[in-house]
Amino acid sequence: MVAQEFIVDLDKPLVFQVGRLGEAYQEWVHQPIVSKEGPRFFESDFWEFLTRTVRWAITVIWLPVECWSISMSTRMGHSLHEIALMVAFGILVWTLLEYSLHRFLFHIRTKGYWGNTMHYLLHGCHHKHPVDGLRLVFPPAATAVLCLPFWNLLKFMSTPSTTPALFGGGLLGYVMYDVTHYYLHHGQPTSEVPPKS
Ligand SMILES: [Zn+2]
Ligand SMILES: [Zn+2]
Questions:
Q1: Would the keyword Repeat turn up in this protein's UniProt record (predicted)?
Q2: Among all ligands shown, which has an atom nearest to the Cα of 185?
Q3: What is the pLDDT of residue 36?
Q4: Cα–Cα separations (whole angstroms), residue 73 to 6, 19, 126
Q5: Running DSSP on this structure, what letter comes out for residue 138?
Q6: Please, how many CA atoms are within 13 Å of residue 63, restricted to the half-sphere of its CB?
Q7: Residue pair 131/34 in contact by the 8 Å Cβ criterion
């Protein structure tokens, strides 16, 4: 008897279904559904709420944290010039981190139930629903959790008075990245590309 292929029911919450696709997950996740209507991820309203983020939440939530963090290094006696260097270095660390995560983790090939499920939550959902307006920026709850290892990484590389400014810079790099990424998918340029002279 031939095993019947599992088919994802798009009208039901998706997250706990995609794992069952097994090896077929890779092909499924790379066939995008181009609709601004987002699918439901979870049965539970609480978890569902955490997966949806309005784009302005990113700046509203994280900019104050950045300012506070950077000002902490200022209060510990660093000059403006030093702070600017630290912030720039933090942005660089973020950039390298994003590149590595995207290259080695976000596009990892999975086929097991939990592997597929985790990949879908982390990045697969973006390939499947690339213009889902509420799932384009990273959910703040997840960012908050990831801030801890990021802080520890920077702490390991720096001194107590430089860590906060580096962290603020890294977070600033993240916000610039996420806002640009959102614009690339959803932006409506208001002016034409200037003609070649
Ligand atoms: Zn990707
Ligand atoms: Zn994208």
A1: no
A2: 2
A3: 81
A4: 54, 45, 36
A5: P
A6: 7
A7: yes
